[in-house]
Amino acid sequence: MKKLVVLSGAGISAESGIKTFRDADGLWEGHDIMEVASPQGWAKNRELVLDFYNQRRKQAMEVAPNAAHTALAELEEHYDVTIITQNVDNLHEKAGSSKVIHLHGELFKMRSTVDESLIYDMTHWELKLGDKCEKGSQLRPHIVWFGEMVPLMDKAIGIARTADIFIVIGTSLVVYPAAGLVDYVPHDAKIYVIDKNMPYIAPRPNLVLLEENATTGMQKVVKELTIEPAP
User: Fold this and answer.
1) Any catalytic annotation for residue 102?
2) pTM score, two decimals?
């Protein structure tokens, strides 16, 4: 079974109604991004940061996967699929994808502020000041903030190197190190890039650019990848 690897970004979640801070003025729900997504912001105002992610979590619970998420899940019938996502929502999992790597963390998980290996599933949408891990420290969102290391990057690079087919969907390819994953895809692999605002990607063999939104672009890719060959 061929290996299909997907790099997904905010564009695929946006079609389900999840807002992205990279739209328009660069603010995320009215906040400067460094106030709510950096260690400095956390040190300055923990309550603000916790409330911000509580609202994002609540919003994520109210939306559903769209046709692009579903199409990626259905490709598991034909390919060995791994999704590497920059998104922190759980829409890929909700759609049925079984192998999802969250490079930038997970909205529905929380972790210790003294031991990064202590990661817990959220049992409720709300995380408050005073909620502590087993070592007695405040719990924080399990999100990779600006200026922090991306712990799963090496794993993602290893998977990108195995791709027979690589799909880039809904990402601007400007956030590093995630954007650099394309550079590890084997030279003979086929790459599809789906985005209504086409990002720059260096020309290479077997490159297909689809200047479409996620749902429309995925319909075309699925049709091409699942069509039965002529006898």
Assistant:
1) no
2) 0.92
